[in-house]
Please model this.
Amino acid sequence: MAALEEKYEELKLRLAESDAAGGPDKIAKQHEAGKMTARERVLELLDEGSFEEIDKFVVHRCADFDMDRTKIPGEGVVSGFGRINGRGVYVFAQDFTVFGGSLSYTHAMKICKVMDLAYRNGCPLIGINDSGGARIQEGVESLGGYGEVFYRNVRASGVIPQISIIMGPCAGGAVYSPAVTDFIFMTEKTSYMFITGPQVIKQVTSEEIDPESLGGAKVHGKVSGVCHFHFKSEKETLERVRELLSLLPSSNREFPPVVPCDDPPDRVNPELDEVIPDNPRRPYDMKRIIVPVMDNGHFVEAHENYAKNLIVGFGRLNGKTVGVVANQPKWMAGCLDTEASVKCARFVRFCDAFNIPLWTLLDVPGYLPGTQQEHGGIIKHGAKILYAYAEATVPKVTLITRKAYGGAYVVMSSKHLRADINLAYPTAEIAVMGPEGAIQILFRKEIAQASDPEARRKELIDQYVEKFASPYRAAELGFVDRVILPRETRQVLIRAFAQLEKKQEEKPRRKHGNIPL
Model:
């Protein structure tokens, strides 16, 4: 019996050693920096009492540089499975208190094990990154570990939702795993991402810059677009991850969870009748249409501070998740540019991969003109939108609120790219281009020869608007299915998506298409 008790006691000691991670001094240092430990983050993220840890006793195999004298159980990463809102997830969290969270080959294999489990079991994968990068002492072995992680990220793409949470340094090759995942969360002032750090940049280009300015949360949330969500504290970040996952399916084999809805599906919004200005040149905030229509006014916007001329995000209609894509007239008149095009296409493809219906709102005068856009590849980037919408087989409902001009009208989920239901407000203007520009091209000579050129120009513009820039012309051709009052938006959308619930559409037989990257 004593021998048995010894074995039990040994297990308890080993578990405690693993839980101690880098020791009290390093844990205190982590807390002083305003950061949780890896284990604290996992427990904060998951439902209380649901975490089941695996590989607690794994250690590295490196004997060079006296590494064989320092082995800490767990190998700098906490991994396992648990639940979020009652649904299964797999998670790993790098531990900066152990070798700076650096990735060894066995560290990578721990991550790969939960990735494989998530893939096989159809559960979301959440990675919490806080690492100094590849463990230098292991050389190419640690690099091989990254390669194994990258391969699994790609294999799982479009199969299970993958979410990366950056809660410390993420540099060099380490950034490529989050870059492949579906959504990246960052915490302000304590996390950063970059390929080459400030010291290397200074050596190569003589440019001096600090980590926050180079790759902090706000930089990636606003300038590069690498980060989808960023928040002030780690606790808020983890809460928002839980919120996002509540809107997503566990895998591509499922549909998003349906929740009870106490918001009447036939609710009307009279205030929407006042959103669109009388003057077609005046901007307005498209969120004034999106938010009131959603269940209880709840809308989770992604990439909120990047490419603000386009809105993407998730909400629910009658308890069911929908993905929203909308031009934002409040910024750049809602024009499409290179950044908005990439933002739009990737979001549409995510929704299509995970069976999330798409609601698209149009108020777009066209693609942004200029040499900067042309030289920046607006042709190939703009084509990504049409590719994504044409490829998507989920239910697609489109609403034209005001302007829908030229190629931008076509690519933004038009009937011609197989949108299922196309709606328009009476204020919709659907044409090749704006009336002023069109008249100048069509009637230049006539206007110049008129006795009163300005009066004739205005007369021709009015005629053009009546004939071409009207939703009724498109409705006559069947390109718009219904013209509705703004106040009816919620009830019409809910009925449309309900009718499309069993939609089936076969894709052509092929390995994969070649999206214009």
About this structure: The longest strand covers residues 396-405. Residues 435-468 form one domain.
